[in-house]
């Protein structure tokens, strides 16, 4: 992930700035669920084996044999090769297995369109062969890093729309886990009527259908599962899809696009994209880029997408357009980097909002640099130290644990800061820093921008101490209420640090029993000035008077009493006993 963050700050800085402003729509494909649901290769092997296992050996006209033979012809097998396949042997043992399945992957929609006899429904290989209800619609499926990160970005108000070709319900499940307000915040659009639902600020558009709804309400949603070639080729022309198509075209025309795990090979998508820009091709040069692809390299269908998008402007600019679009990383790394980058950018802007009028732009840049250092240090723990020596599954599990810790720490820190209480232990909720881009949030009179700006300052000071080696840090855990939001550790100190926005939240936190005011291993960082009348015992200016008691550091008071970030850092060390 550090390499992705580096690109965000250099070659893709214009993309990053626009993303932080909420300008991008996410277009999602099967790649974001590849570690939770089987890939196309595995699914096609399942279809082949389903047909093979159903063959009636003494029936020369067996419908399953006929269907399997048709599927194998799609794999390019000649007559002799086809006759050499032993249908009494499991497909996984066929000598030609890899060649067959690798070829079928590029023809998956034609495979799923093969009919099985006259009495089976047209979608038999989709519904029964793939076992859609239990493969994609199972309630036991768990969201992955990608789904949680997208959900966080949506709750942070940076992504309003996610368009997905995926049947699974993993993004919706991630959103439902992270916020109790799913019903009022999120609109899931599978049918045209779903667009009539007003109120939610987040939308998930499932233009190829939803397996979860098809499992629960089969008569209404089964036919909406799009996978077969005959469906894809007719999709854009069918009257019942007109509303969905128009909605997708508007999003592609009016908004910028970030594609994650989506190959964009299907003909109906090409038609949507072509219709979207037929009257208004994207200009070149484009700043920020109209399309960004979270891929490590471009395939022919990606290049075709860029050609469609930029129209006549693509001619003579194909190379530079491709460079502007190719991010060079897959979904997990991209999305984790976007979460860390977005949170840091919000805090950086809040720091500027609070500090520039006091100390000027140079001090702001110094504190923002400290915040970036803290971000980069966190990012360095997102991947294992030696990934080349590990299996893919071990790397994925490592990233999942990192994402879970990030969610827990953010929820812990912001719940304590805002409400003066510990969140439900291991509850898995996520409290956003703001529910809209920060430039909009600060315009809301009820948004505590000053307090959050001071929180950003405090985190910058911690980042400076980490960068200089003055202390190390151990993140808190919602399951260990008394351990603080973070522990700062030196050779002589092991301070449990809590961040609160004001004296009221401090009182709430103490009444809850999260810390003991006589515990000298506790440091309370208060964003606002702490009124003397609400302090239970007199403190020295920076929170220490030689008696055994919790340290206090008021960010607002300390900014007023110091002349620079350097002085403020020294005051913080003094208050914490470092």
What is the strand and helix layout of this fold?
Blueprint: H1 2-8, H2 13-20, E1 24-28, H3 40-53, H4 63-74, H5 79-84, H6 97-105, H7 108-111, H8 124-129, H9 132-135, H10 145-155, E2 161-164, H11 170-178, H12 182-185, E3 186-189, E4 202-206, H13 211-216, H14 218-221, H15 229-235, H16 242-254, E5 256-260, H17 267-277, E6 291-294, H18 300-310, H19 318-325, H20 331-359, H21 361-379, H22 392-419, H23 438-441, H24 449-468, E7 472-475, E8 486-489, E9 494-500, H25 503-511, E10 522-526, E11 551-554, H26 555-561, H27 565-576
Helix pairs in contact: 1-20, 3-6, 10-11, 10-20, 16-17, 17-18, 20-21, 20-24, 21-24
Short description:
The protein is of the alpha/beta class and 578 residues long. It is 49% helix and 9% strand.
Largest beta-sheet details: 6 strands, parallel
Assign an overall shape: elongated
Strand content: 5-15%
Q: What separation lies between the terminal Cα atoms?
A: 32 Å
Number of helices: 27
Radius of gyration: 28 Å
- In round numbers, the mean pLDDT is 92
How do the strands of the widest beta sheet line up side by side?
A: 3-4-2-1-5-6
Structural class: alpha/beta
Return residue spans where pLDDT drops below 50 for at least 5 consecutive residues. 533-542
Total number of beta strands: 11
User: What share of residues is helical?
Assistant: 40-55%
């Amino acid at each position: 992930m550090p390499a992705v963050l580096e690109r965000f700050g250099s070659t893709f800085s214009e993309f990053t700035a626009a993303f932080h402003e909420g300008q991008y729509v996410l277009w999602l494909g099967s790649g974001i669920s590849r570690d939770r649901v089987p890939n196309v290769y595995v699914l096609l092997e399942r279809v082949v084996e389903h047909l093979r296992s159903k063959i009636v050996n003494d029936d020369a006209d067996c419908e399953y044999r006929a269907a399997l033979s048709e599927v194998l012809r799609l794999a390019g097998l000649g007559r002799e090769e086809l006759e050499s396949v032993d249908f009494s042997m499991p497909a996984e043992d066929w000598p030609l297995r890899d060649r067959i399945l690798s070829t079928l992957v590029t023809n998956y929609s034609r495979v799923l369109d093969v009919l099985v006899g006259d009495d089976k429904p047209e979608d038999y290989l989709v519904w029964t062969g793939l076992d859609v209800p239990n493969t994609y619609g199972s309630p036991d499926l768990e969201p992955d890093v990608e789904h949680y990160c997208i959900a966080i970005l949506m709750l942070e108000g940076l992504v309003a729309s996610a368009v997905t070709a995926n049947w699974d319900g993993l993004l919706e499940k991630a959103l439902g886990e992270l916020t109790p307000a799913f019903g009022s915040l999120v609109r899931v659009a599978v049918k045209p009527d779903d667009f009539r639902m007003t109120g939610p600020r987040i939308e998930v558009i499932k233009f190829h259908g939803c397996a979860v709804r098809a499992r629960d309400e089969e008569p209404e949603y089964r036919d909406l599962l799009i996978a077969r070639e005959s469906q894809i080729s007719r999709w854009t022309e069918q009257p019942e899809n007109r509303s969905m198509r128009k909605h997708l075209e508007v999003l592609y025309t009016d908004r910028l696009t970030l594609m994650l795990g989506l190959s964009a090979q299907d003909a109906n998508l090409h038609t949507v994209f072509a219709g979207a820009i037929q009257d208004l091709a994207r200009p070149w040069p484009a700043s920020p880029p109209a399309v960004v692809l979270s891929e490590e390299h471009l395939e022919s269908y990606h290049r075709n997408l860029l050609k469609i998008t930029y129209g006549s402007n693509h001619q003579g600019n194909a190379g530079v357009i491709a460079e502007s679009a190719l991010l060079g990383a897959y979904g997990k790394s991209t999305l984790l980097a976007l979460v860390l980058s977005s949170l840091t950018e919000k805090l950086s802007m809040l720091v500027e909002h609070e500090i520039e009028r006091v100390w000027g732009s140079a001090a702001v840049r110094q504190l923002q640099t400290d915040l970036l250092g803290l971000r980069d240090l966190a990012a360095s723990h997102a991947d294992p130290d030696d990934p080349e020596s590990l299996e893919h599954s071990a790397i994925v599990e490592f990233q999942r644990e990192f994402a879970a810790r990030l969610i827990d720490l953010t929820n812990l820190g912001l719940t304590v800061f805002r409400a003066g209480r510990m969140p439900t232990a291991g509850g898995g909720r996520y409290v956003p820093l703001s529910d809209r881009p920060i430039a909009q949030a600060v315009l809301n009179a009820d948004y505590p921008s000053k307090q959050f700006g001071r929180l950003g300052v405090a985190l910058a000071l911690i980042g400076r101490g980490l960068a200089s080696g003055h202390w190390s840090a151990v993140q808190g855990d919602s399951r260990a209420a008394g351990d603080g939001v973070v522990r700062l550790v030196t050779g002589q100190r092991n301070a449990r640090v809590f961040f609160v926005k004001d004296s009221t939240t401090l009182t709430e936190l103490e009444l809850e029993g999260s810390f003991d005011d006589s515990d000298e291993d506790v440091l309370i960082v208060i964003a606002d000035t702490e009124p003397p009348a609400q302090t239970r015992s007199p403190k020295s200016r920076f929170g220490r008077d030689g008696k055994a008691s919790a340290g206090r550091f008021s960010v607002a008071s300390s900014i007023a009493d110091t002349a620079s970030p350097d002085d403020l850092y020294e005051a913080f060390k003094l208050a914490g006993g470092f």
